[in-house]
């Protein structure tokens, strides 16, 4: 039986091979990546996904409201990746699963999604590795029957579509995990980390901004002429592209607070000047 | 619902995307590829492999002595790829499954195999597409527990190893089919077929040569000093690298026939001259 060090030496000699093992002397670029499975129906798929992850050296599995977990079928299909299942974090919401995450890639069966830019795995995985230099990142997989909801897609910064037969495009969720994990290892092979240019805000800070923004737009009466859901999706798309920093969120929220206060002052003054008009 | 033509138009507009659909006007480079599963234990894996194939547009499934097939579990895991299962060819031997094949890639969990050159999927799949220009080609997957036997490996011209975690390198067989099929689609994207330089011999013609060679080497007494199995493996390796043409096999077998006849004449003359010595 080889140990890692032996393999490293052998591979060094053999030359042209995925130098998977050469990460021994540098931080493992895959260590900050979490795989998030949303509302998985069949526990066997959770086990098969854990196995697929472990074959490629991914460790962090998050499960949003799995129908059955833990489950004997999950353990059977994990075929020895029990440690991944044991360490899996079961979450009650997507926001819980993405806590602390600075970049989320959402899997989509659609080639283009209105709310998000869509890339191939080969295009996207080098970027995911680079984003992982700034903090935890997530690969988000939807439920077996219908994939991710629009709301879930809106939490991601990038969409990935595995190119497939247009007449039969539905990969099994564990098979999709295997393809993405495989592409991550291939991308890690030639990955040269750059110092992050920005300090991206975490998922929960972004969600805080969106909630604040939506509340403010309601208060100032903006949604009397706009569809709130669609407008918020457009705004998420805009800010996803921008990659907001923490400090920038402070500025934006400061502006929102002032706008609300200004609005409140206007209302108050109007009420004082028109005590006969009913307020709403 | 989109039809292929709509997607083709859309993709033409969107530009940088896997032009999977652009094969409409050229022969599909994936059409001559067969997936061969040897001695698969769990019928669910056969179904999952069929699904993985269909998502990537592969159609030809060959099963060597599957333990259970057809089987309800296979159909369930195929999740709509029933046509692949219905058209699957069940074979009693590897030679039957490779009938007519001019190039075989064998999956191996070992980084280096004594009998064969080993490449990564990304290195090997462009070559497989090119070989498919000359005739049917095969992707050969072993049984769940132990992979391919040495004898099976010896039937292939090239080995492929999916780079994996050295401490947990065992991909599920359907997951491996998914990764290889995915790499085939990616390779097909940038594939520019060349006119084949040679007319490679089929699998059965090669096997005929090896059988003839082995018989001849026995007859001329070569194996009194050599291990037959090991020697034949070395010779297979040599001729796999060479990629024999049909006409070359005729020449080699002609040489073997003459050598045997020469040997037979020598024996006959010796027997005539030494009627007192017992022949063997």
Tell me the layout of helices and strands.
Two copies of one chain form a homodimer.
Chain A: H1 4-14, E1 33-38, H2 43-55, E2 60-64, H3 72-78, H4 82-87, E3 89-91, H5 94-97, E4 103-107, E5 118-119, H6 121-131, E6 137-141, H7 150-153, E7 158-160, H8 173-189, H9 203-219, H10 228-242, H11 246-273
Helix pairs in contact in A: 2-3, 2-8, 6-8, 9-11
Subunit structure (chains A, B): Homodimer.
Keywords (chains A, B): Cytoplasm, Methyltransferase, S-adenosyl-L-methionine, Transferase, tRNA processing
EC number (chains A, B): 2.1.1.200
Q: Say how many strands of chain A there are.
A: 7
CATH superfamily of the largest domain in chain A: SPOUT methyltransferase, trefoil knot domain
Count of helical stretches of chain A: 11
The main sheet of chain A comes to:
7 strands, parallel
The CATH architecture of the largest domain in chain A can be named as 3-Layer(aba) Sandwich
Order of helices and strands of chain A: HEHEHHEHEEHEHEHHHH
What percent strand of chain A? 5-15%
Mean pLDDT of chain A: 86
Q: Using a beta-carbon cutoff below 8 angstroms, give the protein chain pair with the largest interface and the number of residues from each chain.
A: A-B, 43 and 43 residues
**How helix-rich are the residues of chain A, as a percent range?**
40-55%
Helix-strand category of chain A: alpha/beta
**In total, how many domains does the architecture of chain A comprise?**
2
What fold name stands as the CATH topology of the largest domain in chain A?
Alpha/beta knot
Poorly predicted parts of chain A = 1-24
In spatial order, strands of the major sheet of chain A run: 3-2-1-6-4-7-5
The gyration radius over C-alpha positions of chain A equals 23 Å
List the quaternary state of the chains.
Answer: homodimer
CATH classification, class level of the largest domain in chain A: Alpha Beta
For the terminal residues of chain A, how far apart are their CA atoms? 75 Å
């Amino acid at each position: 039986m080889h140990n890692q060090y032996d393999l490293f030496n052998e591979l060094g000699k053999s030359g042209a091979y995925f130098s998977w093992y050469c990460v021994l002397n540098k931080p493992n670029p895959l260590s900050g990546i979490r795989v998030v499975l949303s509302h998985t129906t069949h526990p066997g798929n959770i086990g098969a996904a854990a196995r697929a992850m472990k074959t490629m050296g991914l460790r962090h599995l998050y499960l949003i409201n799995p129908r059955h977990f833990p489950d004997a079928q999950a353990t059977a299909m994990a075929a020895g990746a029990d440690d991944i299942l044991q360490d899996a974090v079961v979450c009650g919401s997507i926001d819980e699963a993405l806590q602390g995450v600075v970049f989320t890639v959402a899997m989509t069966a659609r080639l283009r999604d209105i709310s998000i830019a869509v890339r191939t795995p080969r295009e996207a995985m080098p970027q995911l590795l680079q984003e992982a230099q700034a903090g935890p990142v997530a690969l988000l997989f939807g439920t077996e029957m219908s994939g991710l909801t629009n709301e879930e897609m809106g939490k991601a910064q990038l969409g990935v579509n595995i190119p497939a037969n247009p007449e039969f495009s539905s990969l099994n969720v564990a098979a999709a995990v295997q393809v993405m994990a495989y592409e991550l290892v291939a991308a890690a092979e030639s990955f040269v980390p750059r110092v992050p240019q920005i300090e991206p805000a975490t998922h929960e800070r972004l969600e805080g901004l969106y909630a604040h923004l939506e509340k403010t737009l309601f208060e100032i009466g903006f949604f009397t002429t706009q569809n709130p859901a669609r407008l918020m999706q457009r705004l998420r798309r805009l800010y996803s592209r921008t990659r907001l920093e923490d400090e920038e969120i402070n500025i934006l929220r400061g502006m929102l607070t002032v706008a609300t206060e200004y609005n409140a002052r206007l209302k108050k003054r109007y009420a004082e000047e028109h005590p006969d008009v009913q307020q709403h």
